[in-house]
Design brief:
Elements: H1 5-8, E1 14-18, H2 22-33, E2 37-41, H3 45-53, E3 59-61, H4 66-71, E4 74-77, H5 81-91, E5 100-103, H6 109-118, E6 124-125, E7 127-131, E8 151-155, H7 162-175, E9 179-182, H8 185-207, H9 221-226, H10 234-243, H11 245-267, H12 271-286
Parallel strand pairs: 1-2, 1-4, 2-3, 4-5, 5-6, 8-9
Antiparallel strand pairs: 7-8
């Protein structure tokens, strides 16, 4: 039986955001607009000040605040993977009994099992991944409009209850995501290795290939579009890559094989193989425009 989403994420739900960066701030912005009580804990005092000044949060703290944690029905962690694990380990004694925890982290396999394995039995962690973002970090770049054309992935395990899964799904709907999917942690990490992490690797490698300082004077839309994500948070993305190492390496190897096939067809003057790959590329890309 599907639970009533309006009931399980009613306006009396108190929501705590831990980590008020661009994504955490965008969550807060959207939820506050819709009348929820939204609080935040983040390490930067000026982020709390900004969130309060802009009306994104009702209350905030730049260190763990027992009162904010104890009142929260739903806690959203917008932290690096290792920080999320440490934060929950050190502060889980403060959670309200029955509280639901979720996250925005880009890799799951190395996180979900650890968190669920150490968490109190009366508190539940249900993983999620908003497939939205910007090349800029920090609360000042918060923008809840990025959710409207984006995908949101709920990532349950056998330890999750239907209630928590529906709360997580309802959160995605409330935030206005265009599409909501459900994947296992294993399948999520496989998909993300290809769809997100590999694409960032390609963009980084491309920007590191040519050191001619004048290329910006000749660049067209194709290069700008392809390298948009090359302006990257090195600390966060290197941690995500390493946390999903085997799956990302597998996808990188597949890409190298495919790129080598294209290169060899060019070297051998094999226009038919090149055209066949281009036709397949065009057909698959057209599905994104429907």
């Amino acid at each position: 039986m599907t639970l009533d989403k309006k009931y399980i994420l009613g306006k009396d739900t108190k929501i705590l955001i831990v980590g008020l960066g661009m994504i955490g701030g965008s969550y807060a912005m959207s939820l506050k607009k819709q009348g929820y009580r939204v609080t935040a804990i983040t390490k930067e005092a000026d982020s709390v000040v900004y969130g309060l000044e802009k009306g994104m949060i009702d209350e905030g703290a730049f260190r763990v605040d027992e009162g904010l944690v104890k009142e929260a029905d739903l806690v959203v962690f917008a932290l690096y993977p290792h920080t999320l694990i440490e934060w929950i380990r050190d502060n889980q004694h403060l959670f309200k009994s029955g509280a639901v925890l979720t996250d925005v982290t880009g890799v799951k396999g190395s996180i979900v099992e650890t968190v669920q394995g150490m968490l109190r039995e009366d508190v539940e962690f249900i993983a999620a991944h908003p497939m939205a973002g910007k090349e800029r970090s920090g609360v000042r770049y918060s923008d809840d409009s990025i959710f409207r054309v984006a995908n949101y992935i709920v990532v349950p395990t056998g330890k999750n209850t239907e209630r928590a899964i529906e709360i997580c799904r309802a959160l995605g709907e409330t935030l206005g995501f265009a599409n909501i999917s459900v994947l296992s942690p294993e399948k999520h990490d496989e998909m993300i290795a290809f769809l997100s992490q590999l694409t960032h690797c390609i963009a980084v490698a491309l920007m590191c290939t040519n050191d001619d300082p004048t290329i910006k004077n000749y660049t067209g839309d194709s290069f700008r579009d392809l390298t948009r994500i090359a302006r990257i948070n090195d600390e966060m993305w290197s941690e995500l890559f390493l946390a999903n190492r085997e799956k990302l390496l597998s996808q990188m190897d597949l890409f190298v094989d495919t790129f080598t096939k294209l290169r060899n067809s060019l070297e051998n003057g094999d226009s038919e193989t090149m055209r066949e790959m281009m036709r397949l590329s065009t057909k698959r890309r057209s599905e994104f425009d429907k």
